[in-house]
Amino acid sequence: MKRRDSIFLHNRIYFFRGDAMNAQKNRIMKETAILSLCSVSLQGLGLLFNIFLTKRLGAPAIGMMTLAGSFYGLAAVLSGGSGFVAASRFLSEELGCKRNPGLIFRYALRFCTLLSCSAAVILFLFAPQTAELAMKTTGAVPAIRILSLTLPLSAISACLKGRCYAYHRIYIPVFAECVEFMVKSSAQAICTLWLIPSNKITVLTSFAVSIAAGQGSSLFFLLMMRFKTQENLSGCTISFRQFIRKLLPIMGNACLVAILGSANDALVPLCLLQYGNSTEEALAQFGSFEAIILPTLFFPSVIQCCMSGLLVPVLSREKAAGHVDEIRMMTERVLEQTVSYAFCIVLILVQFGNEIGCLLGGDTFTGAVLCRMAPVVPLIYLEIILEGILRGLGKQNFSSLNYLAEYIVRISVLLICVPLFGFYGIAASYMACNLTGNAVRLSFVLRTTGLKPVVKRIFLRPLFTMLFSWQFTQLLMTLSRNLSIPAPARTCSFLAITISMYMALLYLLNHTPKKRRLQSAA
Predict the structure, then answer these.
(1) What is residue 156's predicted lDDT score, i.e. its pLDDT?
(2) For residue 58, what pLDDT is reported?
(3) At 204, is the secondary structure helix, strand, or coil?
(4) Is the separation of the CB atoms in 477 and 494 below 8 Å?
């Protein structure tokens, strides 16, 4: 009787845990869908806005704005204290332990505010020296001083967004990002259409004003959108000193990535100059790469970015609760979806990269670069997901070392290949660093979670499906070459055929063996 009761109790616990896992999975999928829809809209509008700015201001001006944005991102990361990850991860761990997450949020807010205000004062006072060192011109001093005032706004906004993610109030930061984009784009458009042509404002100053307007509106919206939380005031699992000690590896990882990324961005125009391009041509190619090519490659990855952001609090909570099996199952499912989706994007870029480049306002050069950089897409998307898993599991030390090695490879290949092969050396550097870095990253995640993935299901089937769909579509396009079909209709029809064939064939490969096993078992 006791044994029967224990078995019944075990089955009940397993049943309820399964229901909890399904509810959590449904919540993650719902939140990912909401985030993806808004992010796709914002990314698409941002890409169109970049095309508008490129046509109005020219590619060299976009290159200057990109360099300024890279250095501003570096300053925001160095002064922000990784507020988003600190709030979302540590609050989720505290919620998993059912203690006092409100105190953890006050820790994060206090630290990030003090750090960002100190950095803003230093940057404001030393703006002339910073302009001479970073931009090689004293005309950037007003822009740097305006950007310095936005650093505290960015840090506080990051903490508030991380708190919303920890409590699964995803709609609040989503609407905040929409408000920020609309205000920032409107301010930049006003400057581009009226103030810059009349020489009332410079390109860099207009960029700084638009950033300040966007950050201010986003923070105002986040402060207005409050929500009630039920917290246990019995105590906190860590003190403020322990919080800082845990936060330092996260900050180190973010700062390392930002520093190396800014160094890489600064080296690209210099290496293009060594190849033989003029300064204006180098800035123009760099502007086209940052404004059109990279956003096009990263545009479909908004789903992975949203899922990666949601994985941090979810995995942190599961880790605090000791649910190892749930972490393993979630990791396998996410990897399978990411690889399948990435190979579909590769198929589209390889098949229709030239048409996409011309549609986005580029030339044949842009389309050729998109086609040649398509194989980098699975590596980029895997990096986004794997970094979310590592942050959720608290493996920032490994992530920092891996990023250091990855950027060493990237900058080394950049310094060697770009002076020899020109712009295509950039593609080689992306491929080399992503291939080596993600191989090590994937191996570490599999070893940490104890996951033994089905290589055939995760990697080989999507690869075979992509190659088959590619060749089949090429055959159809060759056979229908003599038909009088308008070019836009031809491209849209074959694009629909390619995606439909890929999805249908992959579905059959993944589900037909399962059905056969069920029939044989019956």
Answers:
(1) 94
(2) 83
(3) helix
(4) yes
Question: What does the alpha-carbon distance between residue 206 and residue 480 come to, in Å, rounded to a whole number?
Answer: 50
Q: What is the mean pLDDT of residues 394-418?
A: 85
SS3 state at 233: coil
CA distance to 200, 259, 447, 459, per residue, from 443 (Å): 54, 25, 6, 14
C-alpha to C-alpha distance for 351 and 360, rounded to whole angstroms: 16
Residue 2's pLDDT is 40
Three-state SS for 486?
Answer: coil
pLDDT above 90 (res 121) = yes
Tokens of 516: 């056969």
d(CA 163, CA 108): 10
Contact 96/166 with Cβ under 8 angstroms? no
Pairwise CA distance, residues 108 & 81, whole Å: 8
The CA-based diameter of the chain, rounded to the nearest angstrom, is 89
* CB contact set of 445 (below 8 Å; sequence gap of 6+): 331, 386, 389, 390, 451
Is 394 in contact with 319 (CB distance < 8 Å)?
A: yes
Structure token pair of residue 111:
């630290």
134 pLDDT more than 50? yes
pTM for this entry:
0.71
* 8 A C-beta contact, residue 469 and residue 502: yes
Residue 513: is its pLDDT beyond 60?
no
User: Residue ranges of the domains in the chain?
Assistant: 1-29+248-453, 58-238, 467-522
pLDDT of residue 11: 43
In contact, 212 and 150? CB cutoff 8 Å: yes
Quote the CA–CA distance of 84 and 202 in Å, as a whole number.
32
Tokens of 269: 């125009």
Unique residue bearing structure tokens 């959590």? 24
Separation between Cα atoms, residue 415 and residue 429, nearest integer Å: 9
- How many residues comprise the chain? 522
